[in-house]
Specification:
elongated, mainly alpha
């Protein structure tokens, strides 16, 4: 459930930001006034999606138990935490821009400040966060294939999508939706497998 919550919240965050932020370089006071509330709502979802992602990592490691490989567990945990760090950093920069504008809505927009913020957010998300997401997918897919924790096709699909994020994220406009979509697929499979198991297996009597 944690992975599903993370995926849905991240989908909503990216979609709200995508429909609110213009693709062109020009940002005006009128645009900020019209979309500040939507952007604030989107950014407020980021901490909760991060909490859900941490729970997803914890549940995944708990389910592996003794089958967990130390090497891939280290890469898995480290890349997941670095992904969250980059995601939170980008959200903090975007939130700072909105807060500064809200404090002085009548002042003209500093285009250099906005350009700096957009470049910083883009680098944090499209260079650093998305690369850490691809490493997370590589390590998780390896664990899936090695342990049989989930169907092998999910692992091989994770390899392919991770390569897309690692080398082609700048060429695919909606590439950042790939990561939450894959986490959603894996989480739905785990939840469905749990629901298919007999109740005495899911909740053994001590």
């Amino acid at each position: 459930m944690a992975g599903i919550v993370f995926s849905i919240m991240l989908f909503l965050t990216f979609w709200l930001l995508r429909v609110s932020i213009p693709s062109g370089p020009l940002i005006s006071n009128a645009w900020l006034a019209d979309h500040a509330r939507t952007i604030t709502v989107a950014l407020s979802l980021v901490p909760f999606s991060g909490i859900a992602f941490l729970w997803f990592i914890g549940v995944f490691r708990d389910r592996l138990g003794q089958r967990e490989d130390r090497l891939f567990a280290t890469v898995f945990l480290g890349s997941g935490l670095l992904f969250l760090a980059m995601l939170f950093s980008a959200a903090a920069v975007a939130s700072a821009v909105v807060i500064v504008f809200s404090a002085t809505p009548d002042q003209p927009v500093d285009l250099r400040m906005v350009a700096f913020a957009r470049t910083l957010i883009s680098d944090l998300m499209n260079v650093y966060a998305i690369k850490m997401a691809s490493v997370f997918m590589f390590s998780t897919s390896t664990v899936v294939i090695y342990t049989g924790f989930a169907p092998r096709y999910i692992g091989f699909l994770g390899y392919g999508l991770a390569l897309l994020l690692l080398f082609g994220s700048h060429h695919v406009e909606w590439s950042f939706f790939v990561f939450p979509a894959w986490v959603l697929l894996l989480s739905v499979h785990i939840l469905a497998a749990d629901l298919r198991r007999p109740s005495h297996v899911r909740n053994p009597v001590p």
